[in-house]
């Protein structure tokens, strides 16, 4: 089903993990894909691959500008000044180990939050705080076509490498399900029903696949 040109140039979750392992310490990869496809699970995959790093989950949807850094007053001789302390979620207080920072739901963050994080995504700095050496940053967002509010301005998109994440196929999901205790009846259903894993953009008529997201929510309402 996933035979469109877009799908052919998209990456699976394992490929996304490998890409971030290769370049994530220099460039921020933004994983853009269908809701519920496991984009956030890449943090756990990276943490397993890099046991020397500390995983840090940053939920961008719960942040306002004042939640990113808080002021702290200092005195230098007779001159008072303000320094800013980053939110603990960013992991910038960890100095003895590199971190893996995931900016989850980056596209849904308040505009002021996205503006405040643009330097972090490009330069690995938040205010006067630098990430420990070899630290990794990546971000996640949903497709704009899903209509859940994900949007980045051009200058924000220029600071990241956007990767389209393809839907996981049932043949890829089954080994994960077996290793994570999914009930055999569910595994059998997934094996026999590959349309569970189809992308909604590849289904022209929503009635052809009642199991997946419908772009127009009104299609789901009873007539």
Strand content: 15-25%
At the fold tier of CATH, the topology name of the largest domain is Rossmann fold
CATH 4th-level superfamily of the largest domain: P-loop containing nucleotide triphosphate hydrolases
Order of helices and strands: HHEHEHEEEHEEEHEHH
Q: How many distinct beta strands?
A: 9
Question: What's the CATH class of the largest domain, please?
Answer: Alpha Beta
Q: Any guess at the CATH architecture of the largest domain?
A: 3-Layer(aba) Sandwich
Main β-sheet: number of strands, strand sense, barrel status? 5 strands, parallel
Detailed description of the structure:
The chain is of the alpha/beta class and about 220 residues long. The protein has 2 domains: about 150 residues, Rossmann fold (3-Layer(aba) Sandwich), CATH 3.40.50; about 55 residues, no CATH class. The radius of gyration is 20 Å and the shape is elongated.
List keywords for this structure.
five-stranded parallel β-sheet; 9 strands; alpha/beta; 223 residues; 2 domains; single chain; two-stranded antiparallel ribbon; Rossmann fold; disordered C terminus; 28% helix; elongated
Describe the structure in brief.
The protein is an alpha/beta fold and 223 residues long.
Secondary structure elements and their pairing?
Blueprint: H1 5-8, H2 13-23, E1 29-33, H3 42-49, E2 54-59, H4 65-68, E3 69-76, E4 79-86, E5 99-104, H5 111-123, E6 125-126, E7 129-130, E8 136-142, H6 154-157, E9 161-165, H7 170-179, H8 184-192
Parallel strand pairs: 1-8, 1-9, 2-5, 5-8
Antiparallel strand pairs: 3-4, 6-7
């Amino acid at each position: 089903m996933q035979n469109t040109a877009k799908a052919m140039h998209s990456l699976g979750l394992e490929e996304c993990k490998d890409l971030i392992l290769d370049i994530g310490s220099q460039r921020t990869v933004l994983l853009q894909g269908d809701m519920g496809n496991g984009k956030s699970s890449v943090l756990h995959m990276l943490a397993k691959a890099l046991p020397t790093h500390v995983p840090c989950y940053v939920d961008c949807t719960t942040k306002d500008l004042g939640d990113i850094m808080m002021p702290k007053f200092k005195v230098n001789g007779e001159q008072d000044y303000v320094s800013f302390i980053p939110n603990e979620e960013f992991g910038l207080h960890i100095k003895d180990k590199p971190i893996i920072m995931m900016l989850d739901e980056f596209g849904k963050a308040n505009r002021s939050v996205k503006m405040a994080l643009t330097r972090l995504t490009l330069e690995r700095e938040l205010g006067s705080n630098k990430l420990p050496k070899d630290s990794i940053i990546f971000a996640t967002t949903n497709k704009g076509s899903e209509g859940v509010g994900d949007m980045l301005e051009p200058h924000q998109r220029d600071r990241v490498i956007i990767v389209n994440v393809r839907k996981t196929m049932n043949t890829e999901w089954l080994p994960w399900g077996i290793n994570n205790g999914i009930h055999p009846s569910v595994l059998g259903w997934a094996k026999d029903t590959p349309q569970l894993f189809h992308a909604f953009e590849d289904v022209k008529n929503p009635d052809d696949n009642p199991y997946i997201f419908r772009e127009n929510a009104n299609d789901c309402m009873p007539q």
